[in-house]
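Q: Second attempt. The first request was missing the SMILES, so the protein and NAP are both included now.
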Amino acid sequence: MSAPVCLITGTTSGIGRVTARRLAENGFEVVMACRHLPRAEALRDALIKETRNAKIHVVPCDLASLESVRECAINFKHNHPRLDLLVNNAGMLPGRPRLSDDGFELTLATNYLGPYLLTRLLLDSLVASQPARIVNVASNTHTLGKLDLNRPQRSGIFSGMRVYAQAKLAVVMATISLAERLASTTVTANCLHPGVVATNIIPDSRSLLKAAAKLVSPLMLDAERGAKTTLHVALAAELANVSGKYFNQHQRIIEPAALAGDRALREHLWSVSERMVGLG
Ligand SMILES: NC(=O)c1ccc[n+]([C@@H]2O[C@H](COP(=O)([O-])OP(=O)(O)OC[C@H]3O[C@@H](n4cnc5c(N)ncnc54)[C@H](OP(=O)(O)O)[C@@H]3O)[C@@H](O)[C@H]2O)c1
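A: Got both inputs this time. The predicted holo structure:
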């Protein structure tokens, strides 16, 4: 039998890097969707040596660009007839307001819209390969999120944490909506909080958040432990039929924010998201 195929975003550092290595060690053919190709290719070469799994590939993907996401999906499908596991791991927390090339608030574009489009474009591959799993890396910060889809670009004074929380709330809500839509299949969709992990998640070295994160970094999980929940949701045999759930950093299913339980809001989010990424 051929190896199961997994596509994972954002493997050039932190939780994604460890997750990719562990999946390769577990016998997956690993496709790493990354925006910085030289860094991703160097990592691929290192992982091939470390894991002795030669089936590790890189596909270009900038999640902040809808065009790049579309090209990534086309590229992937061209080379891989099946997809058993999709891990939407990549994310960022901004220090200052910025717009994506498509004109969306960059945090929303990177953490939510790009992964939403990628997932939608790869759904047919997942369904054709079922049983299959979708694992979305969210954050417990989503509990602070408020969905302002009419004005996702800015709401009052810019706060990186506020736009990040909104994007992660959207991830949690879309995961539940996706699980509902996939109920007649054996493709599952779950999301998780990895814990507070010492990584490069705050890219702007001048931000106050970066300084605060540095101060408390000795208390944080390392990336190895930060990847535990992603790997559990991706691999645990007992989760084969578990879908639409939110896992905490101890690999337990917990209730997400109350807003995520609002079905009408979820459906509203789904149709607004479709419009934003240009899906009919
Ligand atoms: N660290 C935490 O405490 C924590 C807590 C809760 C949730 N999370 C979530 O965990 C996930 C992994 O983050 P991490 O902590 O491991 O951070 P990280 O070390 O900064 O890794 C983030 C990864 O995402 C990639 N990425 C960022 N923007 C991208 C884009 N536009 N297109 C493609 N890839 C992009 C980065 O690639 P580049 O190398 O190109 O920048 C990097 O590989 C994220 O979804 C994050 O929100 C983290």
